[in-house]
Specification:
By secondary structure, the chain is of the alpha/beta class. It has five helices and five strands. Strands 2-1-3-4-5 form a five-stranded parallel sheet, sandwiched between helices. Helix 4 links the parallel strand 4 and strand 5. The protein is globular. The two termini are 24 Å apart.
């Protein structure tokens, strides 16, 4: 018998794993997400993100989405996205980048992962957040 997955937080809001290299940008995004009734969990390395994903699985919890700065200090975001998708199939992910890398564009497009370019256009990100909330 499979157990029901629970949210890491009891507030009932969608829970988003937020992985960014610039912690100040992370704090700003965290505040912005909370204003939109999204509960963010902030990390700033790929290793932390993978650990949090594995911990959530261990605790029978689930993240509703992943928002990832592709250029994390310890590794590119491929590993984090792969780990997230393996553990939470069907959950949306989006990537923030300042690069105009064709390989990343193709990789993300084939996986249905939107790219948001720095500096962030908050209207675009807000559109993705609204789609996320509607899909839950």
């Amino acid at each position: 018998m499979s157990q029901k997955k629970i949210k890491p937080f009891a507030d009932g809001n969608p829970c988003l794993l937020l992985a960014v290299q610039d912690i100040e940008q992370g704090f700003a995004l965290t505040a912005w997400l909370r204003q939109r009734n999204i509960t963010p969990v902030l990390v700033n390395t790929a290793q932390e993100a993978v650990t949090v994903v594995r911990d959530a699985v261990f605790m029978n919890s689930v993240f509703d989405a992943l928002l990832l700065d592709f250029e994390l200090p310890d590794a590119p975001g491929y590993r984090v996205v792969s780990e997230f998708r393996d553990e939470f199939p069907g959950r949306p992910a989006a990537i923030i980048t300042e690069n105009n890398d064709l390989c990343l564009k193709l990789w993300s497009k084939t996986r249905g992962i939107p790219l948001f370019h720095k500096p962030l256009a908050m209207e675009e990100l807000d559109g993705w957040i609204e789609l996320l909330k509607e899909s839950l």
